[in-house]
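Record type: monomer structure entry
Structure origin: computed from sequence
Chain ID: A
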Amino acid sequence: MNLAAINAIVLFVLAIPMVMKYRILPIEGTPYWLFGILFILLVANVVVSLFSKERRLSYICIFTSIAISLGGVLWTSMVDRSRTAPALGVHDIILQQEAAMRYVIEGKNPYKETYFGTPVESFHYADSTGKSAINPALYHFVMPPWYLILPFLFYFPATSILGFFDGRMVLGAGMIVTVILLWRWFRDKELGILTILITALSPATVDYFIEGRSDGFVLPWLVGALFALDRRKWFVSAVLMGFSLMSKQTTWILLPYFVGFLWMKRKRMPLLVTASVVALLSLPFFLWDAGAFIESTILYLSGNSATSYPVSGYGLGMVLYELGFIKDLHAYYPFLFWQMLVTIPALVLGFRWLKKTMKISSLILVYALTLFLFWYTSRYFNNSHAGFLSWIFVLGTMRYIDEKS
């Protein structure tokens, strides 16, 4: 099988919709010469992959095409926003991240403050019925502390050099890191290229990435932790896992498998490293106001807050709403019952398979399956969550194939 040629066609198919749907330079009208360069790269990649075994030229075509399509679109979106309105073409989590950073600079607790009077308030929000409603994000900063702290490394240089900061700068850098990690990870480089293409340009995720959904923030830390774990860099993996846990609650479901994997490998000291990273990042905010921190990062998502995240998305919650078992999308419902009903058996079976194989691909796939079951039976299973799951299933499946090769 000529996987190189398949990769060339996949790149062609995924890159073209990007440049046709979005602008790829922050000027009025994308210049036709840039379209020409991209078309030449895409066609040249197909020709080289079919008629030559020399791969260096093909790799140049691939990575340059990704930079033009995804990189150009992301940069254009950020520049356009800086020139017009703060809520233009961006998700409200980016608006809230930036507002939370300003609160920290002002000495205010971002987990305690509300976000009325910030750009978050200008973001149009509608519930799952399509009716306009008060955005619940105005009451809580849901993200763990690393999502708040890391962007400061970009904030000060960006505002000094460019005159503006956009939270998606972190996402762009994270995607570059993710691509590099995937390139180094796979023994079969063509399989690695296919994984990179699907990760960077997948229709299931790319729109959400461009608008700044937080799933893209956690990805490099998660991939880095798994890559280091596969290479037996136990302490590096432990540190990156700590950052991953403090990036988004998405990775909390991975923690039992991560702990179990290291425990079965008789590598227990790295677990203290992970715990130390989590404590170092979370304790300052926990001690600042424990109630506000817990309510925003845990209770808000589970429906146990007076201003909780509503039932939404495409999961069991909306099925129960359609059937009439849930009357109010904003009211509490015991989703924990359904979550425990499906995730506990998944954990048991997942650990059995992981113990039998002790492969990183098994770790990734049982995590993906358990996360799906947990998410689907939660209050919310949104479009970007399905996209994130596609990332993880792709990574696990490709690693499984690479391990077998």
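Annotation 1: Strands lie at 312-313, 380-381.
Annotation 2: The mean pLDDT is 94.
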